[in-house]
Design a protein that fits this description.
The chain has 15 helices and four strands. The protein is of the alpha+beta class. It folds into two domains: 134 residues, Hypothetical protein af1432, CATH 1.10.3210.10; 122 residues, Reverse transcriptase/Diguanylate cyclase domain (Alpha-Beta Plaits, 2-Layer Sandwich). The protein has a four-stranded antiparallel sheet with strand order 2-3-1-4, sandwiched between helices. Helix 6 packs antiparallel against helix 7 and helix 12 packs across helix 13. 25% of the residues are buried.
Length: 295
């Protein structure tokens, strides 16, 4: 029964807006309230199907906490159905050991340590003890994992565009770059990084107007896509662009001389390179510090 309930335990998330489900960060109070509805809604949905009715109570209570601070009903200790108490531990272990948009996965050992820490708070201590005994026998977990560095389809990539794409250029944004840098296991194939700074944009905007400035940025984004079809491209901090390569690509400033505003002397580019095999960075702010401090 707990296995069958596990297959449908999050079905209630079908009513949760994707802007909440896919948000790469902490939920605010309203968003969290929307997320919490899925336990109740899922229970009601499967409760309408006769063969699934025995599972409805398990699904409803899979986010209760042993100390009574969970949802939807704030049940405590043995008032939480036993099979729900089992699912609570299993669901938490799964969440900790698979990559999520907002955080990378933990090791099996780290997940076990977290369960030990939360005994009697989130988890039934007896159930958790049995679970820990089993989890400690695992050396590998076979599970579907979303590769944050390479979406499996264009459709999947577009689902995340609201958060991860720059509205003007449609390149990836700094939020996505920061998440990638935190998901080290997904980004190990990227060994080289270039950052391109556009100099003279303020003067360009004053001479030709903001709309022309926006057109220049869009044209440059297209220029980069044509020049580096296999790279990941980002627009960060307005006039700066990051090129993330799988191999050790050499880029010379002369490449950008064919870009029309450069030919006309209206703007210029400054190019910097970082070898990701010798430098580890956690995000755009640290990259900026490394580049400008000469670290």
């Amino acid at each position: 029964m707990v296995y069958r309930a596990g297959l449908v335990h999050d079905i209630g998330k079908i009513i949760t807006p994707e802007s909440v489900l896919l948000k790469p960060g902490n939920l605010n109070e309203t968003e969290y309230a929307l997320m919490k509805q899925h336990a109740d809604v899922g229970s009601q949905m499967i409760g309408k199907i006769q063969s699934f009715q025995p599972l409805a109570k398990i699904v409803r209570h899979h986010h209760e906490w042993y100390d009574g601070t969970g949802y939807p009903d704030g049940l405590k200790e043995e008032a939480i159905p036993l099979l729900s108490r089992i699912m609570i531990v299993a669901d938490a272990f799964d969440a900790m050991t698979t990559n999520r948009i907002y955080k990378p996965k933990k090791t099996i050992q780290a997940a076990v340590a977290e369960i030990e820490l939360m005994k009697g708070t989130q988890f039934d201590p007896v159930v958790a003890s049995y679970a820990v005994d089993f989890f400690n026998t695992l050396t590998h977990i076979n599970a579907y994992e979303q590769n944050i560095a390479n979406f499996s389809s264009n459709a999947e990539a577009e689902r995340f565009a609201y958060f991860f794409k720059d509205a003007l250029t449609r390149l990836y944004n700094a939020i996505y770059f920061d998440i990638l840098m935190h998901h080290k296991s997904d980004t190990q194939q990227y060994h080289s990084l270039h950052i391109v700074f556009i100099k003279g944009m303020n003067d360009y905007n004053h001479r030709f107007g903001w709309s022309k400035g926006d057109e220049l940025l869009q044209d440059f984004a297209q220029f980069l896509e044509n020049a580096f079809p296999k790279a990941l491209l980002f627009r960060v901090y307005g006039d700066d662009f990051i090129i993330l390569h799988q191999d050790h690509t050499t880029i010379t400033p002369s490449l950008f001389e064919t870009f029309e505003p450069v030919e006309k002397g209206e703007i210029r580019f400054v190019l910097k390179h970082l070898n990701l095999e010798t430098k580890t960075i956690s995000g755009a702010h640290e990259l900026e510090r490394l580049l400008f401090q000469g670290a």
